[in-house]
Amino acid sequence: MKNTNILISGGGVAGPALAYWLRRYGFDATVVERAPGPRAGGYAVDFRGESMTVLERMGILDEVRKFSTDMRDSEVVDSTGRHVVTMPSAIFAGELEVLKSDLSDILYDLTKGETEYLFDNSITAVAEGEDGVLVSFERGEPRRFDLVVGADGMYSKVRSLVFGDHADYIHHLGVYNAIFATDNFLNLDHEGRACQLGNGKSANVFSTRNNTEARAAMYFASELLDYDRRDIDAQKRLIAERFAGAGWEVPRLLRELAASSDLYLTPVGQVRMDTWSAGRVVLLGDACACASPLSGRGTSQALIGAYVLAGELATAAGDYRAAFAAYEQELRDYVKINQEGAHEVVGMLFAEPPPQEFLDAMAANPPEADPESLTLKNY
């Protein structure tokens, strides 16, 4: 299958990571991304288990380490700011944690020399034929590709065009998550502070970029809401209404939110599918297997999935159907474990924090410390 021309929708983590491995195996890769450049903002992402192996095999582990948040243990407080428990960093920061935007920049720099990027663009139609897939775009003429990969997140455009409505695959877990940059007004030193606000609300602030700034994450329980995902001002009003009158540092957070330019608001959900491919189209990362933003496994799944998909394509002797099937079989159990774990996190989000002894035991035995959870092939 060498010289196969593959289109990847999505320029976050999974897409550029896949582009890297495809080029390593002699494929031609094009990435289309609706943002005007590598995505800015977002939350911190962590690496555990075999995702560290993937970074090492890509030759970027040392580079990624330079951007480590170096997070220490964080504090959970009540609405008056009184200490409740300490949250060990091993639970939320894994073996290595960086801002997602820093990882995106590293992956883009790694691949831009050999990968065609179509920024500020999006797929509008996919038509499969015997000799490939004809893809139409918001901007530019239609083009034909041998294969198409949807690596475009929980609300994947490729999935909606090829597999059907989002509602058929996205399972809402009853929570919304808002993330945005703030000043480090709590003077946090490589640490975070979280507060259970009651009435299905919580907030978390953690320092970033060597304490020069911070990120805020605000969570609230809700059924699915009808709002324009591109109308940031409307989203800010929605959050302000939900958190009106809440205690702790919420009034300051809402002022920071009003001035922010990088708000990311999303329902916390999972993507569950019976199959991840249809003909010459295959899905990757959150598009087919989102465990939820609260799982702490999304970036690991993206990196590992890209490694496995490219490896199976490289060893399939031209049979993309066999490659897609092998890729899915290799990852199904791993995804199942991650999705089951995410339900536990959602269940704890608004509850009283567990005892310190429980948290310490959890930190001593994180899920991916189990060597049987996933073992990567050497392709």
TrEMBL record:
UniProt KW Protease keyword: no
Annotated keywords: Monooxygenase, Oxidoreductase
Domain of life (superkingdom): Bacteria
Ranges where the FAD-binding domain occurs: 4-330
GO molecular function, one term: monooxygenase activity
Name of the protein: FAD-dependent monooxygenase
